[in-house]
Amino acid sequence: xxxxxxxxxxxxxxxxATVPEHVxxxxxxxxAEFVDAGGDARPCQHKDPEDYFPxxxxxxxxxxxxxxxxxxxxxxxxxxxxxxxxxxxxxALRTRGxxxxxxGGTSEWERVNIRTARLAETRAAKAAA
Length: 129
Ligand code: SF4
Prior knowledge:
transcription regulation; flat; 0% strand; mainly alpha; single chain; binds iron/sulfur cluster; Whib
């Protein structure tokens, strides 16, 4: 399952809603330890934390807005070279603390979309069982 990028976004790769098996098998605590172990190799350790929370204190930008698109592009750029990007994204998807800001190369709305897609997939699988 993949989340298709917003049609107005000229992005090189869509954000995948699926998770590699080795990440999916980790419990949330282990995931958090894994992300922490990224240490100084994580780009966010060398940037202003506020760069990762562009919309804090306000509602997330609407998906059709220019602000949203800018955030999407920026999210990918901030985390692009992170060695624990996939793990960080999964942790953000699972935890309340990851509801706001940029985590794992995704914005808030992007993660809402991923959660929604996952829920739909789970419901479809249950209905088919
Ligand atoms: S994916 Fe982004 S937010 Fe997560 S640890 Fe890496 S640089 Fe930081």
